[in-house]
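Blinded run. Sample ID left blank on purpose so nobody reads anything into the name before looking at the predicted structure. Input follows.
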Amino acid sequence: MTDTEWSYASGVLAQPPEGSPGPEPAEAAPKQIGPFVVEAELGRGGMAQVLQVRYRGQPFALKLLLHEAPEVRLRLEREAKLVGSLEHPGIVTLHGAGAIEGRAFLLYALIPEARTLSSAWAELPVEERVELIAQIADAVGFAHSRGIVHRDLKPDNVLVDALGHPRVIDFGLARQAGMERLTQSGMQLGTQTYMAPEQFSLDPDLQRPAVDVWSLGVLLYEALTERLPFPAQGIKELRGKLEEARPPSPRAANPKVSRALEAVCFRALSYDQAQRQPDALVFASELRAAIVQGPDPARGAARSRGLAWAALAL
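Blinded prediction complete.
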C-alpha cells in the first residue's frame, strides 16, 4: 500500500483498556478488506465505520467511508491533508490513505488502552486534570501555529493512552486560514456544549484559534468543577446563557481552585473572542504559570503575616 498525500483523524481510534469488554466483533464486516485483516468494529457513524485491523502483522485503526457523497469525500480529503501536516506527539498519527473498491479509507495508529478524556480524568486529582488540559493545549497550539483551527474540541475528541498522554483526534471540522468553505449555508459545525459563541454566527472570518481557546476553557472548567459552565437543555437556552453572563465561579464549586486558575479559565470563556487568549499556546503558557503559582495562601496564614508586619511597624 502506498501512502497518499492526504490523511484524516477519526474520533474513535481507541483500543480499550485491558480487562474491559472491548469492541464488538465485526460480524457485519468481512474478515478481509483489501490488504487489511479485520479484527473488530470500533465505531460507526452516519458517514463511516472504524475497524480494528491488521496490516502486515501490525494493528491499526481503519476508517472506511460508508458512502461516497461528493461533499463527504471532499471534506475527507481536505481535512486529511491538514492532519497529515501535523506531526506532533499530542495528535493522532496517520499512516496512510487510499481507496478500496471505490471506498475511501484512512489508516491510523491504534492507541493502546486508550480512553476518552472524561473517562481518563475521572480518577485523577484536579492538579493532574489541569496538566492534561495543558498538554492538550500544546497539541492544539501546534495546529494553530500552522494556521489550523480544530473547531470541535471536546472530551470524546481527546484520547488518553495507557501512560497518561493525551492525543487530540478528529480534525473532521478543522479549517485552515484561506481555505474555501465546504459547509452549506445555515449549517452549524461543532458540538454545541463546547462551541464558542461566534461559531453560531457561521461567519468564516470569526473561525479563528480563539474558538478552540473557548473549547479549552470549557474543558478546563469541567476539569476544575466536574460540571459544564453553561448547562442547557437546548440550543436556544444555551445561546441565551452565553449572551447573558459569564459562568458561575469555579471556586464556588471547588474551593481548592486557585484564583490564578480561575482567571485563566474565565479569560478563555470571554464572550468577546478578542478578550480571550489569542491561541492555544498562550492558553497553555498561562495555565502552566497558574499551576506553578500553586494554591492560594490560606486565609489564616495571610492574616497572621499581616499581624506580624503590623507588630513590626509599631
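Unblinding after everyone has recorded impressions. The first helix runs from residue 70 to 84.
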